[in-house]
Amino acid sequence: MAVKVLIKRKIKDGKLNDASKLLIKARYNAMGQQGYISSETLSGCDDSNHVLVISMWQRKEDWDQWEKDDLRKENEAAFEPLLDEPTEYEIYQLGLQL
Predict the structure, then answer these.
(1) pTM attached to this predicted model
(2) Which of 37, 49, 50, 67 could bridge to 56 as Cys pair (CB 3.0-4.6 Å)?
(3) Are 80 and 18 within 8 A, CB to CB?
(4) Which of 6, 15, 8, 2 is nearest to 61 (CA)?
(5) Going residue by residue through the chain (98 aa), what tens digit of pLDDT does each one get?
């Protein structure tokens, strides 16, 4: 079943340009992974330093595999100095599980 992964970040003031470059790299790398469907990046209306990435995967296992990938870990480590707070993750299945 398809899942959406919400990745929430609070970027430090003055670091949005650097974060944007890393987001583009992350998306490019994810596009080549098994099960990747799409992603979108949103920024807060009241605070543009609040950034939300929503990525969609065919199965949770596909996301789990990508989350552990060394290439992804390397990119995530590059984000750390740009963040005011730790990255938060939430994973949702499409539809209700009745």
Answers:
(1) 0.93
(2) 37
(3) no
(4) 2
(5) 999 999 999 999 999 999 999 999 999 999 999 999 999 999 999 999 999 999 999 999 999 999 999 999 999 999 999 999 999 999 999 998 88
